[in-house]
Amino acid sequence: MKNLNSHSMILLFAFLSFLSCKKSTDSVSVVAPSNLQVYASAAVDGSGVVRFIATADNAVTYNYSFGNGDSTSVIADSAKYTYTLSGTNTYTVTVTAVGNSGLTISKSVQIGVYVKASSTKLVWADEFNTDGAPDSSKWGYDLGAGGWGNNELQFYTNSSSNAKVLNGNLVITAIKQSLNGSDYTSARLLTKNKFSFAYGRIDVRAKLPASKGTWPAIWMLGNNQSTAGWPACGEMDIMEQKGNQVNTIYGTIHYPGHSGGGGVGSTTVIADATTAYHVYSLEWSPSIIKMYVDNQLFFSFNNDASLPFNQNFFVLLNLAMGGNFGGPVDSGFTSDAMLVDYVRVYK
Q1: DSSP secondary-structure letter at 151?
Q2: Residue 295, SS3?
Q3: Taking a C-beta distance cutoff of 8 angstroms, is the pair 188, 142 a contact?
Q4: From the candidates 127, 152, 240, 283, which is the catalytic residue?
Q5: What stretch of H or E contains 14?
Q6: pLDDT at 148
Q7: Contact predicate 155/185, CB 8 Å
Q8: Identified catalytic residue from 127, 152, 235, 283
Q9: How many CB atoms lie within 10 A of CB 263?
Q10: In the chain, what's the furthest Cα-to-Cα distance?
């Protein structure tokens, strides 16, 4: 009887232990991943490289679908992928966070990616790596005042106080300074008679001024400007901004019948135009003109043989004050600048 009781006690203990384990297992809560955040950053050098960061609570793996048929799974919260399709293309990338339980949460983001074609070559550039005056073999100056057709308030000079290369940037500075009847001085640089091109892509990396009344521009004019006049020569404004809307970027096309405020264009809003560098780009062919900020398309214009956009154009960089577009200048304005990191032209 003693042996039977002992055996019974062992069985009872084992049964109770099983119930205890089962109860413990059943009480584990199933938690799905949550708070998924996805960030994507595309290289601007035409390499097609995109870096992703994905974070989520209670996630153990992240599955990426890159929007072109490729996919991968990673444990880390970062991933890198290289797109290969030439040109500027937009992809919808879907990231799925997977938890220990197998439950998931997904989020999609769109990313514009520029990939240089294998036949594309850098044909002209200024990296602004030598301190001092801008390279005179590449840049000239428009000088003077008179509003330049837009009732602007500055006098354009070739003074180093208004335009110089410093610490890897071309610095174009507008200054509250009386000169020849104007209340402000600034600079307008251009490649006229030094470099021009027809069709291709131009990238300009720049940081913009923040003062009310400033009007920076990155733009192009047809080579026949001196003979045909404006707007017959055509104008492509890759980037314009004004200080009372610092994060709104304008891209505009001007040609006969669409001059001044009648230009054809569009705008895009970015978060930090005055505190961070962005790449402002134009892609140009006989059939279409496209404008981008950081490879994100925001304006397209159909080109054809009847328009003036089928000849060589030269490049202009300037910082105006006031005028029809810039608007009233802040009464406390003293100076502000546009910083240009590089200008690169590909064909």
Answers
A1: T
A2: coil
A3: yes
A4: 240
A5: helix 2-26
A6: 79
A7: yes
A8: 235
A9: 18
A10: 121
Q: What is the CATH number of the domain that holds 111?
A: 2.60.40.10
Residues 6 or more apart whose Cβ sits within 8 Å of residue 123: 197, 200, 345, 346, 347
Clarify whether 283 is annotated catalytic: no
104 with 193, same domain: the answer is no
Q: How far apart are CA 29 and CA 27, in angstroms?
A: 6
Where residue 252 sits, what CATH number does that domain have? Answer: 2.60.120.200
Whether residues 109 and 154 fall in one domain:
no
pLDDT along the chain (347 residues), means of 10: 44 45 52 92 92 94 95 91 93 95 92 88 97 98 90 97 98 97 97 98 97 98 96 98 96 95 95 97 97 95 98 98 95 98 97
- For the question of residue 235 being annotated catalytic, the response is yes
Instruction: Judge if 83 and 179 occupy the same domain.
Output: no
In the chain, the number of structural domains is 2
Cβ contacts of 208 within 8 Å, gap of 6 or more: 216, 241, 246, 273, 274, 338
Judgement on whether residues 191 and 214 belong to the same structural domain of the protein: yes
> Which range marks the domain in which residue 47 is found?
34-115
Map tokens 């030598």 to a residue: 130
Q: Are residues 198 and 296 in the same domain?
A: yes
